[in-house]
Amino acid sequence: MKLMDSRTDWKKIIQMVAVIGVLCLFVGIATRIYQKNQTSLDTYAKKNPEIAYAKQEPEQELEPEPEAEEAELTKSDAENAAENEGLTAQDIYDNFYYTVEDEGYKFHIMYYNSKHEISTAELGGSVEDAAETLEYFYDLFKAEHEFGSIGELQGFLDKFAPGDF
Description:
By secondary structure, this protein is of the alpha+beta class. The chain contains seven helices and three strands; from the N terminus they run αααααβββαα.
C-alpha cells in the first residue's frame, strides 16, 4: 500500500510543478507584450529631441521683491484657508507680499473682517524684519482671525515697529 501512495504523491508534485511552470510562462509572455507597448526615456528623447533636450528659460520678473523666499508661505496652507471662499491657493498666495517704500514697507495682505469674509488691505509701516511680519499676517489669516477694521490691522502692524518691544 505504501508504494502506491508514494507514486501518487510524486505524480501530484510533478503536476503542481508543471502547472506553476505554465503559469510562469504565461506571466512572462504577458509582461513582454506589455513592455513592448511602452516607450523608454531614451527612445522618447530620440523621437522628440526638441522637447527632451529643451532648456527652460528663466522667468522674467517685473519687479523683484526682496527677501520673498523668507516668507515661506505654502500653497497647501493657502488651499486650506480658502476652501470655502471660492479662491484658489494661488490667489491667496499672490495677495501676501510687501514692497519697499521710502518710509518703510507697504504690506499687501488678506484678512477676515468682522463678518468673517475675506478682505484685502494695504498697510504701511517700518519694521525690523518685513518677511517675519508678513508671515505673522499670513498665520493670522490661516487661523481665520477676525479684524473689525483696517485700523485694528494697522495697530497690529505698528506693534512691530522698532523700539516698541
